[in-house]
């Protein structure tokens, strides 16, 4: 959807006002499907969702202030990187959640390749958020939080650690990108830009859950 349509939708909305397409990407096993299930159903279903073949989506409506935002979240299977997510999905995406597994170094090392691919095929104004998932598995941690933060800073994308198991930061990850996009869609060019980094930091401080990371 183009910005102009988003803008009109925001003005004339009745129930669901803004429609946003979000894609979950990252290597196989990082927890993309688990994160989506946690966000959608508020629970963790252990075991691998090897049944995720190709690409499928879940719709979820979140209310930001008084505006209802419909997130259409596409879950991808990461095995066939550079192929399974067709470029058309990238092109239409408003936001991208890019995951690695904090216990798995190769999933982190591949983030640069993912970002290269993403920058090549997405719209230039796509919202990208880097997520270090499985934050509950601290005893098996292979990637320090600072390493995630540094990489995110290098690419100027927001970052947080999440746990699809405990639910830590899961809702925040989705609502932060929704808020960023929703603000952009209603914003006049002269207004100051919504600062997603500041929003996340403020939300993190509010909820005691996130201080442990
Ligand atoms: N401890 C823990 N395990 C997780 C978490 N997220 C996913 N997993 C597990 O990691 C494995 C891969 O998860 P899955 O959602 O299928 O990953 P996907 O291939 O990226 O969709 C499964 O065994 C999940 O139960 C998490 O946050 N914490
Ligand atoms: C780590 O992630 C890679 C993909 O980046 C995967 O092939 C490998 O099986 C994972 N290792 C473990 C121990 O989960
Ligand atoms: Mg999956």
Automatic annotation (TrEMBL):
Cofactor: Mg(2+)
UniProt signal peptide: 1-28
Alphabetical list of SMART domains matching this protein: ARF, RAB, RAN, RAS, RHO
Domain of life (superkingdom): Eukaryota
Protein's UniProt keywords contain GTP-binding: yes
Gene3D superfamilies per record: P-loop containing nucleotide triphosphate hydrolases (3.40.50.300)
EC number: 3.6.5.2
Reactions catalysed: GTP + H2O = GDP + phosphate + H(+)
GO biological process: protein transport
Record keywords, A-Z: GTP-binding, Hydrolase, Lipoprotein, Magnesium, Metal-binding, Nucleotide-binding, Prenylation, Protein transport, Signal, Transport
Gene Ontology MF terms: G protein activity; GTP binding; metal ion binding
Family classification: Belongs to the small GTPase superfamily. Rab family.
Entry protein name: small monomeric GTPase
Source species taxonomy: Eukaryota, Metazoa, Chordata, Craniata, Vertebrata
């Amino acid at each position: 959807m183009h910005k102009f349509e988003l803008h009109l939708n925001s003005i004339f909305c009745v129930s669901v006002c803004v429609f946003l397409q979000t894609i979950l990407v990252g290597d196989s096993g990082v927890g993309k499907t688990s994160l989506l299930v946690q966000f959608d159903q508020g629970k963790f279903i252990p075991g691998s969702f090897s049944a995720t073949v190709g690409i499928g989506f879940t719709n979820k409506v979140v209310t930001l202030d008084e505006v209802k935002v419909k997130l259409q979240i596409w879950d991808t299977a990461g095995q066939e990187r550079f192929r399974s997510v067709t470029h058309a999905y990238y092109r239409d995406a408003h936001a991208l959640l890019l995951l690695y597994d904090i216990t798995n170094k190769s999933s982190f090392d591949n983030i640069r390749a993912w970002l290269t691919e993403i920058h090549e095929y997405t719209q230039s104004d796509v919202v990208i958020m880097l997520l270090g998932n499985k934050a509950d598995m601290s005893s098996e941690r292979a990637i320090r939080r600072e390493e995630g933060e540094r990489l995110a800073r290098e690419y100027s994308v927001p970052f947080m650690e999440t746990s699809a198991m405990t639910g830590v930061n899961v809702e925040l990850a989705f609502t932060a990108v929704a808020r960023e996009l929703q603000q952009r869609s209603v914003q006049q060019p002269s207004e100051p830009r919504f600062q997603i980094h500041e929003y996340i930091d403020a939300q993190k401080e509010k909820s005691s859950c996130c201080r442990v990371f």
